[in-house]
Amino acid sequence: MSGIWVAIGLSQDLPLGVVTAGRWQGAELAIWRAGSGRLSAWNDRCPHRGMRLSHGFVRGETLSCIYHGWTYGSDGACRKIPAHPAMVPPAAIQAEVYACVEADGVIWVAPAASDVALPDLSGLKPVRSITVQANAIALARALPGFVAQDTVWRGEVAGAAVALVLQDRDATLRLHALGAGDRVAVSRWLDGLRRLVEEGALV
Ligand code: FES
Description:
Layout: E1 6-10, E2 19-24, E3 27-33, E4 39-43, E5 57-59, E6 62-64, E7 71-73, E8 78-80, E9 97-103, E10 106-110, E11 125-132, H1 136-142, E12 152-157, E13 160-169, E14 173-179, H2 183-202
Antiparallel strand pairs: 1-10, 2-3, 3-4, 4-9, 5-6, 6-7, 7-8, 9-10, 11-14, 12-13, 13-14
Helix pairs in contact: 1-2
Bound molecules: FE2/S2 (inorganic) cluster.
């Protein structure tokens, strides 16, 4: 499965010093941005007792687990165990790190870095992400030119280029929208698309 980049969100939705939960093809992730802006995506389980790291907190360039405070650096290595302050944590204590890149305002995650090219979304600006209670087949019925296996759909809204990047596509769709024109027009179009797809999915 390595090398499969999946768009898991928009850069604008993850500010400095924030950790949030995300998904990569069903795998649960903790995605966090350090004070320097560096982005990381890890398996959402603490190596200690399995608490969700997405419930933890970011301090500078580290992420701390909310349960016992074990603290990890951006490379996933444990830096500090508060119950044993004099101990250097063994190198084997390591969060499971995914590859994570940002391009054109979209966050992409894969199990390991690869040379697989990302879609070219240059010239477009991130607008927003939406969740649609339908699958990719219902989206294909509502969106001209979209095929259920596609990862990116390109079209126009109000005369300007638009792209939709698919994250989840099965029971629920997660879509990330970018556009070259009026953001409000794209946002309204997204709301209409969601209604159309969800109503079509009920037929
Ligand atoms: S479960 Fe994370 S520090 Fe204990």
